[in-house]
Amino acid sequence: MFPSVTFAENVVGAFLLGLILALLLGLGSRVDGNRASFLTTGILGSFTTFSNFTFESVDLVRSGAVEVALVYAFLSVMAGLAAAAVGLAVGRAVAARTIARRPS
User: What is the pTM of this model?
Assistant: First the structure.
């Protein structure tokens, strides 16, 4: 069975990581490196579940569902990269719109 919950958590986490990084960079945030790391690596790192992804992939292989494990691994990486790219694009657009609205 395809591990859809972990898949969804990781894709949403990748999107949020791209979004937050683009906003932090695009808005010239005064968030220092430690706080940015806490937010991205700490909070989003605990939201996403690489260890669960690995366990589920190995478990699928052990149960004989090698094809499902391969599809799961491939889709997880591809969807995660795509979600991060979309998050970056959305974050850049929001930051640009926010900057354009600031009084000069």
Answer: 0.87
The CA-atom distances, in angstroms, between 86 and each of 8, 41, 58, 77, 83 are 15, 19, 29, 14, 5
C-alpha span between 54 and 31 (Å, rounded): 32
Q: What DSSP letter does each residue of 23-71 carry, written as one string?
A: HHHHTT----HHHHHIIIIIIIHHHS-HHHHHHHHHHHHHTT-HHHHHH
User: Which 3-state string (H, E, C) describes 64-92?
Assistant: CCHHHHHHHHHHHHHHHHHHHHHHHHHHH
Question: What is the number of domains present in the chain?
Answer: 1
Asked if residue 72 has pLDDT above 90, the reply is yes
Could you tell me the residue range of the domain that residue 92 belongs to?
4-101
